[in-house]
Amino acid sequence: MSIYEIQFTTDPAGDSPYNGQIVDCRGGIVTHKYPGTRPKLTLYDPCHPTGWGGIQVKDWISPFNMFNTAEVGDRISLKNVLVEEFVGNTILQYQSAYQPSFSIISHDNPLPEPIVVEPNAITSPVEGPPWEWHVVDHRAEQYEHMWLRVDKVTVTEKSMGAHNDNYLLQSFVYPDDPKMSCWGADYMNIDKVGFYHPEVITGRQFCSVTGILEQYTNLTNGWDYYQLLTTSTEDFFISQEADFDEDCDVNITDFSLFSEHWLESGCSDPCWCFGMDMNQNSTVDMPDMTTLAENWLVGR
């Protein structure tokens, strides 16, 4: 079976139709590894890049030969794995009771580009009774364990969710629309400090945030939400070079601001002529114009 066949569902709750069954899976490309007591791999099905193409495999067999052998970029297949819904996520459980095995089909496969979505595609949950949060629907289910990117968002709240480690990413293009928001979390981020990555500060604007979508469901305690899991510092894109008006793209407005400071001299730390002296040689000159040209119409 393909990842798509295992993941695709019409169940409103998002459960796999193969929940509880032992299957062979054609597998996919390893896109992420997360160590722990039960280490896990995230796989990507390149035949389904836009939805239902991601899944997580949890290795239960010490010394974790599957986890330690397979590397990011490897394409692997699996036999005799249990499909299980675990806190809302479809997981392939690699457990000795089922005599599982895996094969590495190829190495160094290209990793997928993240799917760019609006925050409302993985919308943040709605608060119910105190400290309970539920999504209105599960339309984000198609992106489970896939790489996603949301653009032009601001960290507006922190200390949310079951473990107080979630934060709210609100679109700064639509700052007054609560539906244009989603939740992020950094528990899989190798560069985090405590709960959060150091860049996750209330009020911080990001041109983009990238991560793996995961669900967390514990209905007994009042939780059911999706979270965008960052994995490293590279998942945070703070600003676009030559974006002088800080709207995450480089266009005629930025050129206009740049031209007002053309050939201005005496630029110094900390302002460097309002950021126009990009190579910090004390003058707004041709090297800075070259940088502006290289980034022309680039943006998120």
Give an overview of the whole structure:
- This protein is mainly beta.
- The protein contains four helices and 15 strands.
- It has three domains: about 5-105, Nucleic acid-binding proteins (OB fold (Dihydrolipoamide Acetyltransferase, E2P), Beta Barrel); about 115-235, OB fold (Dihydrolipoamide Acetyltransferase, E2P); about 250-295, no CATH class.
- The protein is globular and about 70 Å long.
Average of pLDDT? 95
The CATH architecture designation of the largest domain is Beta Barrel
Lateral strand order in the biggest sheet: 1-2-3-5-4
* Poorly predicted spans: none
Rounded to an integer in angstroms, the radius of gyration calculated over CA atoms is 22 Å
Q: Structural class from helices and strands?
A: mainly beta
Please, how many domains?
3
Oligomer: single chain
Provide a count of the helices. Answer: 4
Kindly report the CATH topology of the largest domain.
Answer: OB fold (Dihydrolipoamide Acetyltransferase, E2P)
Task: Kindly summarize this structure in a few lines.
The strands form two sheets. This protein has a five-stranded mixed barrel with strand order 1-2-3-5-4. A five-stranded mixed barrel has the order 10-11-12-14-13. The protein has helices spanning 3-7, 65-69, 252-259, 286-294; strands at 22-34, 40-44, 54-59, 75-86, 89-94, 101-106, 115-116, 126-127, 133-134, 147-160, 166-171, 181-185, 205-218, 223-229, 236-237.
